[in-house]
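Backbone-to-sequence.
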């Protein structure tokens, strides 16, 4: 029998095959170590080695892709995982024309992340690593000063441009901006592959929520540009993350991805018994990693593993856990795969 390595399990499971066991990982932001490639790489490597995760999702700072297109932030002032916005590129509809394809080689934020990837790859040669990127539509929301969550605002953004008004009044400029963003992201994906990533964690974040964009609007303004970016990865494994409530994971079953991640505990979302063609990447409420809730983590892990017993499956929290997550909770998650 072939010896199962981390790489072989990861690849097999995300290609719809059964391995010797499911695999597990977790992640959170390193708010005090996310401003340089060296700090992020060091924090990520230490986190990976401490918990011996089966695979690693790199968690860059939440704004790095918006920075690549010109947004500016104050990194001494955070609310949750978001630094305070100082400047958004799109202040009025005419500013959409300012959004142009960014040369990856000339972008400090993108080069910073590529440098971090190379350091992580060198230190963890046998561990699958995936890089987190946002969809072009999510990035455009940031560039207009908006949050991609229907019930949140962007910290520091007092006068965001009304995105729905832009869609109604200047649709062609919105499409042009999204196309420029998508071309940049596709080129960045190529560079990520060259730097050594094994896949993407492609976040459409909260944009699938029907109160933000209905299905027809999402299909017009997100899907075509999602496909440009996702098709840019030729050899890796792609996990799509649809975040928040009413996330509708089933709508992404025809996307060119190998896995789908969603919040199985959020309002309006299906649990892991949902029939999907893609590998499921989910399972545990990400809010329960503080406050001595190890018993609940164990219970939810058992339920998730039982619900997916005959399927390829990646057990993870449903989103990033708190940056204050306890060692006990993360160790419980790591060991839960053997229940």
């Amino acid at each position: 029998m072939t010896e199962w390595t981390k790489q072989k399990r990861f690849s097999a499971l995300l290609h719809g095959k059964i391995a010797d066991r499911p695999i597990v990982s977790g992640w959170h932001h390193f708010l005090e170590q996310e401003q340089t490639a060296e700090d992020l790489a060091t924090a990520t490597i230490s986190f990976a080695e401490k918990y011996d995760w089966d695979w690693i999702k790199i968690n860059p700072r939440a704004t790095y892709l918006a920075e690549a297109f010109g947004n500016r932030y104050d990194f001494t002032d955070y609310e949750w995982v978001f630094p305070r916005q100082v400047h958004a590129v799109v202040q009025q509809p005419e500013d959409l024309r300012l959004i142009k394809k960014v040369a990856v080689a000339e972008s400090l934020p993108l080069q910073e992340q590529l440098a971090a990837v190379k350091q992580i790859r060198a230190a963890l040669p046998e561990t699958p690593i995936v890089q987190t990127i946002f969809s072009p539509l999510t990035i455009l929301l940031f560039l207009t000063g908006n949050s991609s969550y229907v019930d949140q605002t962007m910290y520091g953004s007092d006068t965001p441009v009304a995105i729905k008004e832009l869609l109604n009044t200047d649709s062609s400029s919105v499409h042009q901006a999204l196309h420029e963003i998508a071309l940049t992201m596709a080129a960045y994906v190529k560079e990520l592959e060259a730097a050594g990533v094994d896949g993407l964690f492609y976040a459409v974040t909260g944009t699938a929520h029907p109160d933000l964009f209905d299905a027809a609007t999402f299909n017009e303004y997100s899907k075509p540009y999602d496909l440009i970016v996702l098709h840019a990865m030729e050899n890796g494994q792609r996990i799509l993350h649809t975040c928040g409530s009413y996330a509708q994971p089933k709508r992404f079953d025809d996307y060119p991805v190998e896995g789908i991640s969603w919040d199985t505990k959020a309002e309006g979302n299906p649990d892991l018994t949902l029939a999907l063609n893609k590998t499921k990447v989910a399972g545990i409420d990400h809010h329960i990693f503080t406050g001595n809730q190890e018993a609940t983590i164990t219970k939810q892990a058992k339920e998730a593993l039982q619900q997916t017993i005959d399927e390829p499956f990646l057990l993870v929290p449903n989103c990033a856990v708190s940056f204050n997550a306890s060692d006990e909770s993360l160790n419980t998650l790591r060991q839960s795969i053997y229940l």
